[in-house]
Each structure stands twice: as C-alpha cells, then as structure tokens.
Design goal:
9 helices, five-stranded parallel beta sheet, seven-stranded mixed beta sheet, alpha/beta
C-alpha cells in the first residue's frame, strides 16, 4: 500500500476513521494492518507533518530529557535513528522516527486535514473537515491527544496583568526571558525542567515557582507496581465518567540528579498558589479582609514579576466530538472495554490518549486494543 502524498484528499467513506497522527494513532493503524484491515481505514492528521505533538516541542528538549518516547510496535526508536539518538532534539527526532515508521509500514495518513466536527449519520458517522468536505465512517478511533488544548486556571485579575503570560505550549527557549522576573506555575515535570532551564541559562533572569500542591519528589526507584496502581487510579475515574487526571499527578516526580542539584542551589523554592493577579504581578491574601477570612491575618504578600509562565497542563482535545454528546453527568466521558478505550454510550467510538492510555507506553497498548475492537465490530478475526 502506498502512502498518499501530503495533502491528498481523503476518500469520502471508510470503515474505520482514525483522527490524529501521533503514537496512539500510528499504533492503531499498524495493528489494523496486522489484522487484515489495512485497506479499510483512513487516518486524518491536522499537523503539517509526522511526529504528533512532538514536532511542536521546544528546541532544547532532547530525547534524553523528555518523558520517555516509547518504541512504536514493530520497529524501535534506536533501530530507526541509531544508538546516539538520546542527544537529538525531540522536536526533530520524533517526527523523523514517526515519518520513517509510516513509510516502512505503509500507513495511510492524510495531512494536513482538520476535523471540525463529528456527527452521527444513519448507521455511522460524518466527519466534517476544515475545507468543507466530509468523510463518513462506520467506526471512529479518536487519538487527538491534548497538545491543542493548553489549560490555564481562572485566577481573578488575569486580564489586569501588564506583563507577559504564556503556557508550556508557547515556550521556545530560555533566551526569551533574559533579565526578567519569571514566575513558573505548575508542579509537573515540564514545570520543573523549564524552571531549572530558565534559572540556569537565561541571562539575568530571576525565577520564582508556585503551584496548587507542592510536588513530591521520590528518591527511590519507581516500581512497576506503583506505575500499575497509578494507571489503575486514572482508569477508575474514566470508567466512572469522571474527568481523567494525569498519571504523574498520582505518582509524584523522580528526584533526578538535575532536580537534586536545583534544590541544593535554591532554584526549587516552592510557594503555594497565589490568590490574585495584579497589574504588576501576583499576590497572596491580597487585602487584610481576605487574609482574615482565610485565617491568615497580616499584611498581604505581593510579588512583582514580568512574566507568568503557566505550566498547568492540558486537557483532552476532543471539542470536535461535542455534537456526539458523550459527556457523562460527572463531567467526563464514561469509558469501558478491556483497556477503557471504548465509549460506553456508543461502542463504535474509541478514545485513545484519554485517561489511562495518555502515556507513551499506554498509547501502544491502546492502539492494539482499538484495532482489535474495530476488527471485532467489522466481523474480522484479530490474531
């Protein structure tokens, strides 16, 4: 099977429509081929090229410093790029790997194609595309991840701030913070890594750090049992129709040598979350009355900063599925199936990268399961 050239028009109908072009989508396509369904699916990716969200990451992020990029099924990262690939920038190495993978296995990917909305139609679905055309399908495998939905919490006064606000999604390099007072907000691995990077390499920058919860750094090796329990907790939430949480939020962070050194050097001096944003910075218990109401009487604390850098995570990029009305009363989408990839309200729809399948290793397993479920629904034996 030949890969259609970039921009090739999708066929008007397919049995299985895969929306997205990252690791979970490629894994699903690989196993569809394995199960004899290589000519019965189409993958629509709105990115300009292979690589999923990795192609948009900041240039200083290498494969060695990124959360581990797990091998795609059938052909590993080192096999594709070589033994020294850990030193390569993730924003170029992963797209290179994914592109070679698509070519090696003849995966059918149409890009760039934007899916505006998915609606039910007759016995299947209609995906409305950005150019006004549409693709109908019997089944939908959604693998759009989270990168396109950066999350910034609502804090009073945000519109008043005269400095710059940006999200992890918008970060390019530490040089953009030269000689500035930078407040990094967040407790995940990206917040920690970028805080350290800015503090150590941005000339003249002064950094500060706060988050809703102080993160726990684990000095002991992370065990497989802990990993399984963390994934299980996220899975229990989505099976109950609750919004998923990240796996990291229940595992804590590894105390790496770089983090230990930053702690010793005073870079990781944590503050609790501020209560208001002002024109020149942020404040805690911003007036005496509020301070008394919170049980902390005294002078309010204010911090002047030039930049508020939100590293507050992402939400699932599934707005295009809104016409399907999949949300449960708990605010999430109730999931079922062996790996919680199947939408309970409509088993013809599967979500990859939602809940427990959001990790890179989880994406592979979810891709295989999605292909297996699709084969079963189409009456094909999956071996």
């Amino acid at each position: 099977m030949q890969i259609p050239p970039t921009g090739a028009q999708p066929a008007p109908h397919t049995d299985v429509l895969i929306i997205g072009g990252g690791q979970a989508a490629l894994s699903a396509a690989y196993f569809l081929h394995r199960f004899g369904l290589g000519d019965r699916y189409q993958m629509l990716d709105h990115a300009p090229g292979p690589g999923g969200a990795w192609q948009f990451r900041w240039p200083t992020l290498t494969l060695a410093t990124a959360n581990r990029v797990h091998d795609l099924p059938g052909w590993g990262l080192v096999e594709a790029l070589g033994l020294d690939c850990d030193e390569f920038p993730a924003a170029t190495a992963v797209p290179d790997y994914f592109g070679r993978y698509e070519e090696k296995f003849g995966l059918t990917v149409h890009r760039p194609v934007h899916v505006r909305a998915v609606r039910r139609e007759a016995d299947g679905f209609r995906a409305e595309l950005g150019d006004g055309s549409s693709v109908t399908s019997n089944l939908v495998v959604n693998a759009t991840g989270t990168w396109d939905r950066p999350f910034i919490p609502h804090i009073p006064g945000a519109a008043d701030f005269r400095g710059r606000q940006l999200h992890t999604h918008d970060y390019t390099s530490p040089g953009e913070f030269e000689n500035q007072r930078v407040l990094v907000v967040g407790a995940g691995i990206s917040a920690i890594q970028l805080l350290i990077e800015i503090a150590r390499t941005a000339p003249g920058a002064e950094t500060f750090w706060c988050s809703r919860r102080e993160p726990v750094f684990n000095s002991e090796p992370f065990t497989p049992e802990q990993g399984r329990e963390a994934v299980a907790r996220v899975e229990r939430r989505v099976r109950a129709g609750l919004p998923p949480t990240s796996v990291v939020s229940v595992t804590g962070l590894a105390l790496t040598p770089a983090i230990a050194a930053a702690k010793r050097d005073g870079i990781l001096e944590w503050r609790p979350m501020f209560t208001r944003i002002t024109e020149t910075g942020v404040c805690w218990d911003c007036d005496s009355r509020a301070a008394e109401a919170l049980g902390r009487p005294g002078a309010p604390e204010h911090l002047d900063v030039d930049v508020i850098f939100w590293n507050t995570g992402f939400r699932s990029a599934i707005d295009h599925l809104a016409p399907l009305r999949l949300r449960a009363p708990g605010g999430g989408i109730t999931m079922t199936g062996r790996l919680a990839t199947v939408v309970e309200a409509d088993p013809r729809i599967q979500l990859l990268g939602y809940g427990p399948s959001a990790s890179t290793i989880g994406a592979n397993r979810a891709g295989r399961e999605a292909a297996r479920v699709a084969a079963e629904l189409l009456g094909v034996s999956a071996r």
